[in-house]
Amino acid sequence: MIEARNFQFLVLGLSAAWAVVIAYMFYLVRRDKKLNQELSRLRDMLSDREKSSR
Amino acid sequence: MKEKAIYITGGLAGIILLLNIYNIFMVLPDEANQGAVYRILFFHVPPAITGMVLFFVAMVGGIGFLSFKDFWWDALSVAAVEVGVVMSVVNLVTGSIWGRNQWGIWWAWDARITSQFLCVLIYVGYLVIRPAFSDATQRATISAVLSIFAFADIPIVWFSIRWWRTQHPGPVLETGGLQHDMAMALLYNTIGFLLLGAALTLIRLRSEEVQREIESMRRLAHAL
Predict the structure, then answer these.
(1) pLDDT above 70: percentage of residues in chain B
(2) What sections of A1-54 are H helices per DSSP?
(3) pLDDT tens for residues B18-34?
(4) Which chain A residues are within 8 Å of B100, Cβ to Cβ?
């Protein structure tokens, strides 16, 4: 079982580890969202151009 | 298929890490000298191993691209490097916090810590240099060569605690320096982190493929 000795450093270490991983996950999700928006914007633009060229 | 693989690896990683957290905090005893803080080990060693495995995958990706000239290998390589850097940063940060408590200092220019820090710098350099090349083939070729040469640092990081006896604790994994229950908890967390690393790499790989699709669509839009 866990004691109080050096407990605050353990909490600090675990919080820091998960903070780095979670921050990276947020970055991945945001990047994914931005890329998908850009992809659909380009798809729309290309299909508009194709329609207008016919 | 890729979505399914992401959910399966991510889900398994979550389950293993959550179950093991209970084991680490509620079942395992405190270490006699360090008290509670030794538990940082379970979040320090697994990310380091995951990072090394991912840098190996990046090297395989580099060799794959140079052999087959298929951009999927380049995408795999960059995805593995990025997640590997994140895992290595987790390793350095947790080690620094443990060191502050046990050694009284946040940082030491010790062989293991310095070689790991250099490893992170080399792979950050890989990520920073990539956008400098606008030509996709040139970018992938240079990245592939870099990922192969950068891997040369990994054996130095791994063996540094055997080759030089400096500040960092010596090897405990293969010398049996860990009690059986602690070694098992470390093994489960290593599996959990490896699965987490795999899930994050698959997500990053997917976004790299979307990025390539965007680039080819942009070229098409310019041509029209």
Answers:
(1) 100
(2) 7-53
(3) 999 999 989 998 888 88
(4) 9
pLDDT at B85: 98
Look at residue B143 in the predicted model and tell me its pLDDT: 96
User: Under an 8 A CB cutoff, do B36 and A43 touch?
Assistant: no
Which residues of B are less than 8 Å from A16 in CB distance? 90, 93-94, 97
- Cβ distance B216 to B51 under 8 Å? no
Q: Do A17 and B220 touch (CB under 8 A)?
A: no
Residue B132 CB partners (closer than 8 Å, separation 6+)? none
| Domain extents in chain B | 2-223
Question: By the 8 A CB rule, do A43 and A36 touch?
Answer: no
What one-character-per-residue DSSP string does B37-72 give?
GGGGGGGTHHHHHHHHHHHHHHHHHHHHHHHH--HH
Task: Please tell me which of the candidates B34, B100, B207 has its beta carbon nearest to residue A31.
Answer: B207
d(CA B35, CA B38): 7
Which residue among B37, B47, B93 sits closest to A6, beta carbon to beta carbon? Answer: B37
Q: What is the pLDDT of residues B173-193, one digit of tens each?
A: 777 778 889 999 999 999 999
Read off the pLDDT of each residue in B209-224 and give the average, rounded to a whole number.
Answer: 87
Structure tokens at B175: 């010398």
Contact B224 A53 (CB under 8 A): yes
Look at the domain B2-223 and name its fold: Four Helix Bundle (Hemerythrin (Met), subunit A) (1.20.120)
- Could you say which of A7, A28, A38 has the minimum Cβ distance to residue B214? A38
Is residue A54 pLDDT above 60, yes or no? yes
